[in-house]
Write a structure and sequence with these properties.
- There is one protein chain.
- The chain has 4 helices and 3 strands.
- It is α+β, with helices and mostly antiparallel strands.
- It has one domain.
- A 3-stranded mixed sheet has the order 1-3-2, with no helix packed on it.
- Helix 2 crosses helix 3 and helix 2 packs across helix 4.
- It is about 60% helix and about 10% strand.
- Bound molecules: zinc ion.
- Zinc ion (ZN) binds next to helix 2 and helix 3.
């Protein structure tokens, strides 16, 4: 990645907040209050599901994986997304030495 975008991401004048938005909205921005909202739970769940489908079904191409991920997400409850992502976050934060 180009150095200028890394500097922009690290030094720009905005806050980041982790909030639940919806199953299929991973983030949003409020320009007036300069806040970028990240739906960390859906981000983690969607990526995990996508990569898991790659793992289980190597015969699918990328387009098929994206389509299958989208379809599977529709059938998964908000509670399951939050619980699974919280479990993963807790596990990996502990491994990284966080809390
Ligand atoms: Zn992929």
């Amino acid at each position: 990645m180009k150095k200028w975008i890394i500097n922009q991401l690290l030094e720009a004048d905005y806050r980041i907040e982790m909030v639940w938005i919806s199953k299929d909205i991973l983030g949003s921005i409020d320009r007036e209050s300069k806040i970028i909202y990240l739906n960390l739970w859906s981000i983690i769940y969607e990526i995990l599901l996508h990569e898991f489908i790659h793992y289980k079904s190597p015969e699918y191409d990328e387009e098929e994986i994206v389509e299958k991920t989208f379809k599977m997400l529709k059938g998964i409850s908000v509670q399951e997304i939050i619980q699974t992502s919280n479990t993963l976050l807790k596990k990996y934060c502990e491994e990284l030495g966080g809390e």
